[in-house]
Amino acid sequence: MNKYDCIVIGGGPAGLSGALTLGRARRKIVIFDNGTNRNRVTQESHGFLTRDGIKPQEFKNFALKGLETYPSISIFNETVIEINRDDQNDLFLVHTSNNKSYITEKILLSTGIQEEFSLSQIRQYYGKSLFSCPYCDGWELRDKPLAIIAENDEHINHMTKLVFNWSKDLIVFTNGYQLSNKLRNDFENKKIKVYTAVIKNLYGNHGNLESIELETGENILRSAGFVVPNFYRPNKFAKQLKCQVDENGGIITDGAGRTTANGIYIAGETKKAGPSSLMIAAADGNKAAFSINMDITLDRF
Fold first, then answer.
1. pTM of the model
2. pLDDT in tens, 200-250
3. Strands 230-232 and 114-116
4. Measured between alpha carbons, how far is 70 from 80 in angstroms, rounded to an integer?
5. Which residues form the FAD/NAD(P)-binding domain (predicted)?
6. Which residues contact 60 (CB under 8 A, 6 or more apart)?
């Protein structure tokens, strides 16, 4: 069985960036990626310097092409299903869905997060006309008649005030949540209408939103909008490996990718279980790789 210096779980910008740095440090690396990166549903990725507007898969292919220069990096399209720690030898045994096992000294968790929505219909429009990040997609929706779909004061307040920078034509949909009087007054002063009725359905074609129907029978025209999903980690690896978390569910690190579990490092959205940009995730992977390489160096010197 081959032994690796580090196994990278997750081939998004954080994992690929980390692997690149480790490959350049002549470390033997394997990346496991099953193609479930959450930005795969979007048409374009924005905000990454020199690659603004690139298609997510094109961005990923470009990154993978760059890794081909380094012969010590392997990439497997497999899903990791279990990680066991070998305390006696200070190693990890990684098992995949293909009934294969791999040994490694270090692990970089960069599996990202996934969204879940209270309205299943949002999936039909998510990534095409409904989005969760104004910094990523606000420019393309500027001055359009937009919907804000969120279901508590904190999320409604944050998203609405932020999106107001890109379009003043906003309508807030709370899907049954009763907005606080203060927030309602703030919105009324900016001529932002609020509907608190439960949403019955979304209408549109080929992922392009056209209107939102409420249980009251009202049907409000909107061409696009922003939603606030709930985010979750798609696996329990950090918990199973006993990485400590803070009161907000973020995984505690030393600021450079090291978790409280020896040999386990983390980068990207996995760390805070919240959304991040491509550029920040890639920087996280780079930073974690510096830590991994230094720790390997000190272990062996």
1. 0.93
2. 999 999 999 999 999 999 999 999 999 999 999 999 999 999 999 999 899
3. antiparallel
4. 23
5. 4-149, 177-285
6. 11, 12, 16, 37
